[in-house]
Amino acid sequence: MTRPRIAIATCAGYDDLKAGDAMLREALAARGAEARSVVWDGPDPGWEGFDLCLVRSTWDYHDKHAEFLAWARRVEEATVLRNPAELIAWNSEKTYLRELERAGVPTVPTVWISRGDEVDVETVLAQRGWAEAVIKPVVDLGAKNLHRVGAGADEAEAALAAVLARSEAMVQPFLPSLEAEGERSLIYIGGELSHAVRKRPAQGDFRVQSIWGGTAAPTEPTANEIAIGSLSLSQLDEPPLYARVDLVTGPDGAPRLIELELIEPNLYLSTHQTAAHHLANTVISILS
Question: What is the phi/psi pair of residue 81, to 5°?
């Protein structure tokens, strides 16, 4: 067997946050593969020359949504793409949460707002009994374009307008548990639970992503959390190569799915000794 060539799709920038990519390249190299990071929208590297393209740190796709989806389809025509283009497209709009909710997955309560809808945010908060809410785009990542608003705040309508300028919007209650507990993330490789982390926000913030000062540490998921993860992934046609199930404590005190990340999630490989090797082995198994 010739030495497999693997492209790790990334984006320009964020070099200080790509430790997981480096660990994966090393693990793949140890298994005889040639792994190379390639900026997804940079100069065409000749995707057909790779045996597999692994989407990992394309952390600007939300600003180039249509272009990114077209890229995924084009690459999949040239080589093996993981996760697949159809799954990427489905997961790129947070409306997938509505499908998971209908399937019985406990999710964060959400009011969905389309462009052209006549919606008053104050009325939404009053009807739902929410003192505060988070307004975010249906297409986004890293909490980059969300807005936290309070009942009676003048900026609520402006926040909704700003979000609708990007895409359709979703309004959710602000969960105090985000400040107190953060999020729990369950990481799956090849459909199997690999490890879990607790992500905590920086002091005075509620966003858990590292770009906002958030931190992550290993944790042990509860049986209830594992059940939610399993139920979420069971709704997919087949197990994805990688997945991250993000959970929060909901208004009722029980865990709820806030995101199912199937495109470019940080898999926190550095928090689990064998995770990078497990992922590399699974990648190689796809090629063999």
Answer: -120, 130
